[in-house]
Amino acid sequence: MSTSPSAPTNRTMPQTALITGATGGIGYATAKLFLERVDLFDLVIITGRSQAKADAAVASLRAETKCAPERLTSIVLELPCPDLDAVTTDLRRVLGDRKLDVLVNNAGAAATAPSSMMGVDATFAQNHLGVMALTLHLLPEMADDGRARIVTVASSLHTRVPDTLPDPVEASKQPKSAAGPHYDGLHTYSVSKLYNVWFARQLARLLTGTDRVASPTLQAHLARLQPTATSVYLCPGFIPTTGLARQSGFLRSILMHYVLPWFPFTTTVEDGAARILFAATATADGGGSLSGHMVQGKPPAVVDEVRGVPAHAKNVAKARECWNKSCEVLGRPEWKVVVAEEKVEK
């Protein structure tokens, strides 16, 4: 099993955190770890796909951590969400007069059969489009005091996607294995995780002011958070016992749950949660910025230059293309990135 990275404690505390997809698996373990770190977080908000699941997770977490009831609450969220205004209303209700310091985009899915949402593959819609829409919708709720951080949980599987992808959205419609016509859910999941990486990196460029969006409203929300808000991503490791692994089909799920956990290249949900905590709280050595980078391991934390992240995953033009094509599918063309020579819409 891998060794968990340690999380630094030199960010301004205490903080509020929203963790999506936290009723089980790595999300649940992350919420538990955040609650155990009273020195870091005094309010943890989790999301579940139903009120019953959210309530059950809250009750279980309170029992396990013995946390004060006011330190943990929940809201209902299923991605992609058809009513983000309702989510915002629920979030404001539990935040009160506070702002959100940390958003952990953890919720995800891995389908074993073809299905569609929003005109694209359901896995792609849930793992990328839903995350993008939620994050941009919640920017007004993020703290503007230098602590805001958006953590996107990606996967090392993004490295298996070649740089010869067709149109970013069309890529999710072609989850066919080269060996045959069957649905290749692993490919589609990997594609969605590459788009997570591109999303996190492009968001970082917007939060630093390097790029702009066409929408004056969204641009104002981004500018409010500049230049200290950060967007980072991480790969939590290969965790064969998670819900995503169990969605991989019967035989593969048996292998993942009962056999692979004994192999040294796998990790546990607890280790994965520790990596998320590190990504949520780490600071760069020498006063630099972690924004736009994969944050993993121990300081100096920025490791995307040395761990084989493919060049196309760090390609600025591809990240911008991914962003703009996603805006089209979401029906929000005003969210598109405009390059310097283009005129921003009034």
From TrEMBL:
<keyword id="KW-0560">Oxidoreductase</keyword>
<dbReference type="GO" id="GO:0016491">
    <property type="term" value="F:oxidoreductase activity"/>
</dbReference>
<protein>
    <submittedName>
        <fullName>Uncharacterized protein</fullName>
    </submittedName>
</protein>
<dbReference type="InterPro" id="IPR002347">
    <property type="entry name" value="SDR_fam"/>
</dbReference>
<dbReference type="InterPro" id="IPR036291">
    <property type="entry name" value="NAD(P)-bd_dom_sf"/>
</dbReference>
<comment type="similarity">
    <text>Belongs to the short-chain dehydrogenases/reductases (SDR) family.</text>
</comment>
<dbReference type="Pfam" id="PF00106">
    <property type="entry name" value="adh_short"/>
</dbReference>
